[in-house]
């Protein structure tokens, strides 16, 4: 296989995140060397044209990946629940999470956390049984990185999934696929912190990637990701998998 690079971006307004800057945008992908410049350009574009605000701090990190460490995964199957209101959307989310064994208190805590978070750049890790937050990273959360689509496979996949081949959806499916395969992962709940984007999803190996067309009100800055895990999880190994193991979606 050719050389592969990880490209990661995070952007904030008012200085770097760790110095109190307001989170604007983040993004990541894995690409072949020939697509590196284009991937960096796309992520930079995402950082400087975001409806959350005007980034004055942008970090772009490019790293070569050791191909022998690559894990290959097929993308989660995709379905869409079309709903007529945010209430209906959240009710659908509750139904899916319940079916995966996430407790009522964990569902409530997850929804409340996303509703009150306007500056969460990674994901909050919650126990699927108690709903207690397990990571200690507050606004940083744990960030799933180093995953990306095989380009040829993505072209094929988007032809089979009309309307879903946008960069945002592609990135979300790559991330959700990696996350769903993490040890002791039960489910992911996500909606964007982009005030213009109200579709979110529930993902797991059992349900696949279930899009829900309305999970928040337009104009709201709240959003982020919740990773629901079993209590046997070893947080350090989970973090290593999510942040360091390169995953190639194809
Ligand atoms: C994000 O952009 O921050 C998350 C996107 C979630 C939903 C993408 C989709 O399937 O429409």
How would you describe what is shown here?
This protein is α/β, with parallel strands linked by helices. It has helices spanning 36-48, 86-99, 104-116, 151-160, 167-180, 235-244, and strands spanning 4-13, 22-32, 57-65, 71-73, 78-81, 123-127, 147-149, 185-191, 200-204, 208-212, 224-229, 247-249. It folds into two domains: 4-69, no CATH class; 72-249, no CATH class. 30% of the residues lie in helices and 28% in strands. The protein has a six-stranded mixed sheet, sandwiched between helices. Strands 2-1-3 form a three-stranded antiparallel sheet, with helices on one face. Strands 4-12-7 form a three-stranded parallel sheet. The longest helix has 14 residues, at 86-99. It starts with a strand and ends with a strand. The mean pLDDT is 97. The protein binds pimelic acid. The site of pimelic acid has 11 residues, from α5 and β9.
Order of H and E elements:
EEHEEEHHEEHHEEEEHE
What is the general shape?
globular
Q: What Rg, in angstroms, do the CA atoms define? A: 17 Å
Structural class: alpha/beta
Q: Averaging pLDDT over every residue, what do you get?
A: 97
Largest sheet features: 6 strands, mixed
Lateral strand order in the biggest sheet: 5-10-9-8-11-6
**Assembly level:** single chain
Bound molecules: pimelic acid
Count, helices: 6
Task: Say how many strands there are.
Answer: 12
Number of separate domains: 2
What percentage of residues falls in helices of 4 or more residues?
25-40%
End-to-end Cα distance, whole Å, is 14 Å
Beta fraction: 25-35%
Low-confidence stretches: none
């Amino acid at each position: 296989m050719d050389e592969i690079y990880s490209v990661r971006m995070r952007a904030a307004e008012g200085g770097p995140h760790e110095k109190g800057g307001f989170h604007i945008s983040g993004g990541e992908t894995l690409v072949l060397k020939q697509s590196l410049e284009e991937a960096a350009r796309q992520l930079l574009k995402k950082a400087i044209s975001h409806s959350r605000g005007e980034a004055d701090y942008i970090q772009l990190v490019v790293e070569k990946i050791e191909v022998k460490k690559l894990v290959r995964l097929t993308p989660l199957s995709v379905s869409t629940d079309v709903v007529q209101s945010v209430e209906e959307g959240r009710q659908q989310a509750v139904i899916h999470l319940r079916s995966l064994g996430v407790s009522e208190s964990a569902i409530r805590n997850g929804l409340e956390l996303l509703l009150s978070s306007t500056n969460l750049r990674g994901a909050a890790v919650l126990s699927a049984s108690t709903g207690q937050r397990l990571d200690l990273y507050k606004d940083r959360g744990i960030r799933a990185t180093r995953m990306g689509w095989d380009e040829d496979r993505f072209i094929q996949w988007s032809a089979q999934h009309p309307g879903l081949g946008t960069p945002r959806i592609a990135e979300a499916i790559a991330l959700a696929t990696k996350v769903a395969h993490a040890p002791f992962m039960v489910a992911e709940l996500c909606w964007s912190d982009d005030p213009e984007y109200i579709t979110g999803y529930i993902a797991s190996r059992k349900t696949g990637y279930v899009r829900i067309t309305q999970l928040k009100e337009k104009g709201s800055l709240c959003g982020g990701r919740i990773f629901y895990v079993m209590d046997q999880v070893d947080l350090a190994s989970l973090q290593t998998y999510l942040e360091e193991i390169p995953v190639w979606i194809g």
